Amino acid sequence: LGFPHRPSPHPTPAPQRAELLADPGFGRVFTDHVATATWTVDRGWHDAGVRAAEPLSLHPAAAVLHYAQEIFEGLKAYRQPDGSVALFRPALNAARFAHSARRLALPALPEAAFVDAVTALVRADQAWVPEPPASLYLRPFTVATEAFLGVRAAEEARFLVTASPAGPLFAGRDAGLTLWISDELSRAAPGGTGDAKCGGNYAAGLAAQAVARAHACDQVLFLDAREHRWLEESGTMNVLLVTADGELLTPPLGTILDGVTRRSVLELATDHGLVPVERPVSVDELRAGCLDGSITEVFATGTAAVISPIVTFRSAAGEFAVGAGTAGPRTLALRAELLDIQFGRVPDTRGWMVPL
Ligand code: COI
């Protein structure tokens, strides 16, 4: 499946693009093109290419609009010191996208085609890749487009990648986030879609996020659905803890997203003198550890969030701080190393960066 480029007849004029790139915010500015491919049950994937970004035309009965048969991904393209552009571990996103497709009964795009699509789009819109610390956020997604109201896997779907120059997800919150521990609303249950990246998971998290905001918190920390006891993830991020005896602790996979940043940080841990440990962590252990100092730092990871320190937890039972209530040294060191790798400021010894 190739992605030939048909340039937009109306590209954004360079001065306007420069203005948008100067302060893009997160998720508000979009480039001139999309990558796309169509799937039908009888033809498979076809009609692939990079085209002008235009509004989609969907039948009002399109399955995605009714039954949320949709999956998505998030990855970034980074401007390198020599002016070139590189992607961070796109094969991991491709594999997770295929996993999500199987769970949502959508056609799985071949993983190589996923990387080709993203690469073709970034090549077409290379001028939209901002200077550090901003980057080009890429949002691949597949939606069920078949007009059919019976509930079954759609026989027509469309894959797209849209691109958005982006700054930080939590602008102005570098000092650290406050999380609301959600003891009523859950995100995912065993056997559910928690480990798939589908829109429905995020829609289901919005009410909990509103509760968090009402308590002046930045985000939610979800607990397991069965016992409301075990840490899961924070709506858009995985959660990791640093212990006083040198462990980098994080909840195991299962009902949470297999985050690319989560995985990368676990792989960087040993170089930072930390032992990566994936095991269930209870909210009681979190609270007790923060209070007695055996948990020294907590942070959240995500493509959009990068590595964001968490300095306070709040719940119906009250609140507690992590460490001194400021971003911890391990958090900052891991964040600095990850960003140095992504922006090509240190040698990529792990082969994580993929040049265009
Ligand atoms: C990401 O970090 O890529 C996400 O998908 C989180 C959010 C922006 C939905």
TrEMBL record:
The modification N6-(pyridoxal phosphate)lysine is found at residue 197. One of its GO terms (molecular function) is branched-chain-amino-acid transaminase activity. It is an enzyme of class 2 (transferase). Residues 1-15 are annotated as: Disordered. GO terms for biological process: isoleucine biosynthetic process; L-leucine biosynthetic process; L-valine biosynthetic process. Pathway: Amino-acid biosynthesis; L-leucine biosynthesis; L-leucine from 3-methyl-2-oxobutanoate: step 4/4; Amino-acid biosynthesis; L-isoleucine biosynthesis; L-isoleucine from 2-oxobutanoate: step 4/4; Amino-acid biosynthesis; L-valine biosynthesis; L-valine from pyruvate: step 4/4. The keyword ATP-binding does not apply. Its EC number is 2.6.1.42. Gene3D superfamilies: 3.30.470.10, D-amino Acid Aminotransferase, subunit A, domain 2. Its cofactor is pyridoxal 5'-phosphate. Keywords: Amino-acid biosynthesis, Aminotransferase, Branched-chain amino acid biosynthesis, Pyridoxal phosphate, Transferase. It catalyses: L-valine + 2-oxoglutarate = 3-methyl-2-oxobutanoate + L-glutamate; L-isoleucine + 2-oxoglutarate = (S)-3-methyl-2-oxopentanoate + L-glutamate; L-leucine + 2-oxoglutarate = 4-methyl-2-oxopentanoate + L-glutamate. Belongs to the class-IV pyridoxal-phosphate-dependent aminotransferase family. PANTHER family: BRANCHED-CHAIN-AMINO-ACID AMINOTRANSFERASE, SUBGROUP IIII AMINOTRANSFERASE. This is branched-chain-amino-acid transaminase. The lineage of its organism: Bacteria, Bacillati, Actinomycetota, Actinomycetes, Pseudonocardiales.
